[in-house]
Amino acid sequence: MTTTDITPDLAAFIDGLKFDADGLIPAIAQQHDSGEVLMMAWMNRESVRETLTGGRVVYWSRSRRALWRKGDTSGQIQRLVELRADCDRDCLLLMVDQVGVACHTGRRSCFFTAIRDGAPKIVAEIVADPDKLYPAK
Amino acid sequence: MTTTDITPDLAAFIDGLKFDADGLIPAIAQQHDSGEVLMMAWMNRESVRETLTGGRVVYWSRSRRALWRKGDTSGQIQRLVELRADCDRDCLLLMVDQVGVACHTGRRSCFFTAIRDGAPKIVAEIVADPDKLYPAK
Description:
Two copies of one chain form a homodimer.
Chain A: H1 8-16, E1 24-31, E2 37-44, H2 45-54, E3 58-61, E4 66-69, E5 78-85, E6 92-98, E7 113-116, E8 119-122, H3 130-133
Parallel strand pairs in A: 1-6
Antiparallel strand pairs in A: 1-2, 3-4, 5-6, 7-8
């Protein structure tokens, strides 16, 4: 997917999404080829529009109350391969190509804690040094 | 995963989850072997507990304001293979074995609308008759 203009079809699609009372919709990011679920974050109308037209995933940061162009700080961007909506139009699935790691802990996926044998276990390795991803911290 | 008692570790894990102001946490269901993302729904504390101990996925229905033991009406249950939490403990990933279809439209996944060539396209077939899944409707 490359940079493109907003089309009337895309504008109508975005208008048909069900944003919550805060104007947000949950978005699941999945590595397009391996199927790994990488993370879940939130989008507002503007971030959906920018993601669909820019080809790079942009979320809405609830803590910073600002557009979150994932990777601007860490370089770990997500290229959009395909965006999908669910039957109720209240959740998005982003099939992406993740550069490096999705998680701020330096793991590929944020879902690295699994319940096994009745207790939480960490099931993924740190593959990137968080201090190098976020040098200003 | 089979039926089990709640352990102190599981109770502590559930206590550590970040439920929102409505007492809910988003949960993504993924077919454990194919990697297909099936649906996203919501869980409350009780539904997480019942899912972890019962081995069958139970959500919270926001519209019905009740526990939603998926498949009670349609038979399309989800057996839990593994539950994972994300780094912020505010989202769950349910790796499941989906019996039949996840979507009320009779499609395997709820995410059957994709943006392709600048417009929404339906990219999955109906594989189960919704009138047979929900005969009372």
